[in-house]
Amino acid sequence: MEPIRWGIVGGGEGSSIGYIHRSAATRDGYFRLTCGAFDINPERGKRFGMQLGLEESRCYASYVEMFRNESFRRDGIEAVTIATPNATHYEICRAALERNLHVICEKPLCLTSREAEELLKLAKERNRVVGVMFGYAGHQMIEQARRMVEAGELGEIRIIKAEFAHGGLSAAEDARNESLKWRLNPQVVGPSFVLADLGIHPLYLIRAIAPGLNIKRISCRRQSVVKSRAPLEDNAFVLMEYDNGAVASMWVSAVNAGSQHGLRIRIVGSKASIEWSAETPNILSFEPASGSPRVLRRGMPELYPSAMAEDRISGGHSEGLFEAWSNLYRRFAIAIRGKAFSLHEPSWYPDIEDGANAVTWIEKCLESSNQDGRWVKYESCV
């Protein structure tokens, strides 16, 4: 298909997230980077954009200037990625939608459910796609897990155990790292640290793998293990109950000393269980109630066709985060263009409703935690 004319806000020089976005979006040729507002320092942003091969006139000082100028061009952008700190997501996403641009936004979508409701309404009015970058959902074995649940291979879902607990900020002095400092500033990240930064990833994986489950109520306890981080939490425990009677527990932490990453999810059904870890993303453990456990591997012919459709290299080789993000950008492109490329093309992607649900979940977790873990009713803003 014709590449989508695409720009980026943020993600400039030295940004690892910006690099992943650019690599993933352009890998399959579905997006073409044509402009950007890469940095709060206009000169540095312009220099960086030109290093990427962009025209000097399309390396903008701000997103406001970029959206305005691009709207007057016959070859102006059709979509934009927002790769800036949390507190700016709402205003940039709103401005993009008002210019009739499709949006791919870093998580969280925004900071409050009121903001989420406004973005939902605007996206619907303008008929624009808004994708939220829950990047781990692009791994091939997440698609496999989703199809296994859909096919009834696990039976009725009963128990979910999820965690995203790394040790990257175990000590107070870790926050001196300039690339991490902003994550501990409430004015930049909002009222939550690890729930908003880490917790919504396994939350969305549950939703992606078992979309038929709906949360009924939540209980949360959160801590500032490093006391200077208060009121932001660096550790939290969340319990959830679903409408089918299933229960879930989640641990999210930035003080799990020694853990390099720590994202994993286990889903237990009446017939079988599955387990997946982001540190070994190319395998999915399948453990039936009767019979021998199996390890399903990426790229093998026994996988569901929609999982194989996302295979990028032959089986036996490892695939990683770049491939997962590329799969999601491929899905975003399909949604934006409104067409599928093959019979088994995956059609789901983390959309604005998923982003809004995550924002509501964060608020409910904070509400519960502020009442010493009291169970609170979960009501989505969607």
From TrEMBL:
Record-linked InterPro entries: Gfo/Idh/MocA-like_OxRdtase_C (IPR004104), Gfo/Idh/MocA-like_OxRdtase_N (IPR000683), Gfo/Idh/MocA_oxidoreduct (IPR051317), NAD(P)-bd_dom_sf (IPR036291)
Gfo/Idh/MocA-like oxidoreductase N-terminal domain boundaries: 4-133
Gfo/Idh/MocA-like oxidoreductase C-terminal domain location: 146-377
Residue stretches spanning the membrane: none
Family: Belongs to the Gfo/Idh/MocA family.
Name assigned to this protein: Gfo/Idh/MocA family oxidoreductase
